[in-house]
TrEMBL record:
The protein's name: beta-galactosidase
Catalytic activity: Hydrolysis of terminal non-reducing beta-D-galactose residues in beta-D-galactosides
Keyword vocabulary terms for this entry: Coiled coil, Glycosidase, Hydrolase
Domain named Beta galactosidase small chain/: residues: 252-542
Disordered, as annotated region: 1-47
Enzyme class name: hydrolase
GO cellular component, as recorded: beta-galactosidase complex
Length: 552
């Protein structure tokens, strides 16, 4: 084989990226040797420094964990002290501190109270007082009365002289003449006689004035007032006819005298309501049948498994048809009526709730009545369908700035059909945060029951939101106002996992399935079960000028 010609260039033998030290200047060689020595030092020191750094971070993490543990212990201790305060002294105002435990204690206190009132005769002014003591009479207790009138604050309490009531016995008590006069003066409205039993003297377990028991007796109105403000025809005022504008998928109703406006979504349902004072409703109302599960629902005696099997939590509302018209009657000139047919159904089963929502808007755009009428539709198939529903309600979305709530109904704590004995009828105020009950495991909470009306408004000093009021024509209802969706309450397993919405969610319940005790006992009693049957109810939404008058 012939050797390569000496004229051919020799192939490079150096590795790519290397540099011959002989080609470097002396300063470059010195710098390279220094860099190599530094790299060797770093390589030797890095493991030791890394270990030391990780050990320091581990100690810091342990210290943080200890702080978290101590903080949790302090929070638990504060919670226990608050619950004890509520149990021992909080009853004096029938209020309890925030937290589910304190409300449990107050409910327990109500159930075991040693004095109960029975058989009130308003005309004769007599009632029966029963003692549940085994050894003591009632001489250590002072009794006072007050009157709570529908939509009004309770009167100042005044004393009643109690007869001798032996342990375990029942005695008839004659009400004072002043009490009878007060009942008679307010006989045109529903009223409630409030009786409070308090310690006369200090004891080892509670101070004088501590409320041992209380009772509230309903006194129905003695006469019919005819058409009340709950009636849509009484609230829908006759003023100038509004301006109607139609755009694809929208019906815009505007006031000729102000900036008030309603934008109906004829495709998805609901409306956006804006008044002269600002936005009142951003979306809704939407007919809904679901609420978040409770621990009782998911227990062996609850109905949660049936709801999950029937995919009630997946049921969504969709619009089938929308129509509208403007009244020309003499009594309702300019009132706008929008009728929407909706269907609530899960994505893959055959059952559905078919309903009609009829909106009647006053010409002034300050009052809207919403009539919801529907029934559960079942098809002959193997597809399962629910026999009881979690609830029947209207859901509205309001601006987040709404934070103050005022209502006449049961309170101050949450109340449901089978969980309201410790809640008294009255006029209450609370923030949206105070309505929420922070159960350890997030679930349905915070409903208030036997509501005559509820009002929401922004905190003082925050403009751009009018005061909005809700009532139901058929009678009392339930409401919840919260910043968490039902799906979010179902999803979270701990309180810190709850994510708040950007807006406020207001729910107005016609009916609510009972809570029962399915986590460790039977389901709700028959009287508190919400069977899937036809429903028909009307809700009246109204904008009011100020929150001092009840507008009744």
């Amino acid at each position: 084989m012939a050797r390569p010609s000496s004229a051919e260039p020799a192939k490079a033998t150096k590795r790519k990226g290397t540099r011959n030290m002989s080609t470097l200047r002396s300063s470059q060689r010195a710098r390279k040797r220094a860099n190599d020595r530094e790299a060797q030092r770093v390589n030797r020191a890095t493991p030791k420094e890394t270990i030391e750094r990780l050990e320091r971070e581990l100690e810091e993490a342990k210290a943080i964990q200890e702080l978290i543990r101590r903080n949790k212990a302090l929070e638990d201790e504060i919670s226990r002290l608050r619950e004890a305060m509520c149990f021992l002294a909080g009853g004096s105002q029938r209020l309890c501190v925030r937290g589910p435990g304190s409300y449990y204690y107050y409910r327990y206190k109500k159930v075991i109270e040693p004095v109960t009132v029975e058989d009130l005769d308003p005309k004769a002014g007599k009632l029966s007082l029963r003692s549940h003591y085994f050894f003591s009479d009632l001489s250590h207790l002072a009794c006072s009365w007050s009157i709570t009138v529908q939509d009004k604050e309770a009167t100042e309490p005044k004393g009643i002289d109690l007869p001798h009531v032996a342990p375990g016995s029942t005695e008839v008590v004659q009400l004072p003449a002043e009490c009878l006069s007060c009942l008679q003066a307010h006989s045109s409205r529903d009223g409630w006689l409030d009786l409070s039993f308090r310690l006369k003297n200090d004891t080892e377990w509670a101070p004088a004035g501590h409320e041992v028991a209380w009772s509230q007796v309903h006194v129905p109105s003695s006469s019919s007032l005819g058409e009340t403000s709950n009636s849509p025809s009484a609230l829908l005022a006759n003023v100038k006819a509004p301006i109607i504008t139609i755009v694809p998928g929208r019906l815009i109703v505007s006031s000729p005298d102000s900036n008030a406006q309603l934008i109906f979504d004829l495709v998805r349902g609901g409306f956006k309501w804006t008044s002269e004072a600002g936005v009142a409703v951003t979306q809704g109302p939407e007919l809904s049948i679901y609420r978040a599960m409770t621990s009782n629902d998911l227990g062996f005696g609850g109905d949660g498994a049936d709801w999950q099997r029937c995919m009630v939590d997946w049921a969504r509302s969709s619009v089938v048809k929308s129509t509208w018209e403007q009244d020309k009657d003499d009594d309702a000139i300019g009132n706008v009526k929008v009728t929407t047919e909706v269907r609530i159904r899960p994505p893959s089963l055959s059952w559905a709730v078919r309903a009609t929502l009829e909106y009647v808007v006053s010409a002034s755009l300050t009052v809207i009545s919403v009539r919801a009428k529907g029934d559960l539709e079942r098809r002959e198939s193997a597809s399962p369908s629910p026999h009881v529903l979690p609830r029947i309600r209207l859901d509205l979305t309001l601006p987040r700035s709404y934070n103050r709530v005022r209502w006449f109904g049961r309170g101050p704590g949450e109340g449901y059909g089978d969980k309201k004995d410790a809640s008294a009828m009255g006029l209450y105020r609370a923030s949206v945060e105070e309505l929420h009950v922070p159960y350890e495991v997030p679930q349905e909470n915070g409903s208030r029951g036997d509501i005559h009306w509820v009002r929401l408004q922004a905190d003082q000093g925050i403009g751009g939101t009018p005061i909005i009021e809700a009532r139901m024509v058929h009678g009392p209802f339930n409401f919840t106002a919260r910043k968490h969706t039902a799906q979010e309450l179902d999803r979270a397993r701990h309180r810190h996992e709850l994510k708040e919405c950007d807006e406020l969610l207001l729910s107005l319940d016609l009916a609510h399935h009972g809570l029962g005790s399915g986590s460790c006992g039977p389901p709700p009693f028959e009287a508190h079960r919400l069977y899937a049957e036809p429903f028909d109810f009307t809700t009246v939404l109204r904008l009011v000028d100020n929150d001092e008058s009840t507008g009744t």
